[in-house]
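Journal club prep — side note

Before the paper discussion, L.F. wants everyone to see what a predicted structure for a comparable chain looks like in token form. Sequence:
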Amino acid sequence: MKAAAHEATALYDVPGPRTESRHRMYGVLSTAIVLGLLAWILYLLFDTDQFTYTKWMPFEYTGIQRLILRGLGNTLKAFVIAAALSLALGTFLAVGRLSDHRVVRWLSTLVVEFFRAMPVLVMIFFIFVALKAQPLTALVAGLTLYNGSVLAEVFRSGVNAVERGQGEAAFALGMRKTQVMSFVLVPQAVRAMLPAIISQLVVALKDTSLGYLITYEEFLHAGKLIASNLDYDLPFIPVVMVISPIYIGMCMLLSWFAQWVSKRQRRSPRTKASDVAPAEPGPLLPGVR
């Protein structure tokens, strides 16, 4: 009876009693290892006096708090600009890759493959050093070129994943390609693309920390200034324990926003199935009684 509660699939067999007990044992061992690792880390932190008031007292200073907020604001500023430009560039390149014109399609493919293969840090340094751009400009441009190229592939794959008959039916109704893309293919592809889009935006948010290497005063740069001007020994654990949760929290907020948008789309009247009237007997054909 217990095995009947499991649904058999083509990917794996239904686990038996021995397999289930073995999986429970693996789970218990994994939990014990993780808890032991956390206990060991906490022991090291307390043993090296990382939670003493002396090391945490500087965060009460107004100057330190303003420095952290300014760095956080600069990080969000770079991220918002880079995210908006990356989405625009990704859309533009995806349209080029889906174009019916061979030259446009080849040029778009060349741009996408080149910037996808180029390391982000190399692009940022090249724009900052060779082109002598400002730190914010160099950081945003490097993030835009890389993430825009990746998003272009996400958009193209999402549109191509829509059932082929959807586009063919729209063309049969006399719609132009722009109308087919705007009103038929893209709306259906957005829900499939949304997790990948948010994941790439999270990557862009984390990559804003590369601005530290070109003297852009972002969040990580602010933490480095705090640690270097205080009497901290390496590693700068208190500074890391302040900055890391904020980074993680911002990434989690993006993921939560993606889930909220996805749920809102499912509740939207445009995507809700229409009620079908029950079948009723129709008029008889002529000559039929």
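L.F.'s comment for the group: The chain is about 70% helix and 0% strand. Keep this in mind when we get to the figures.
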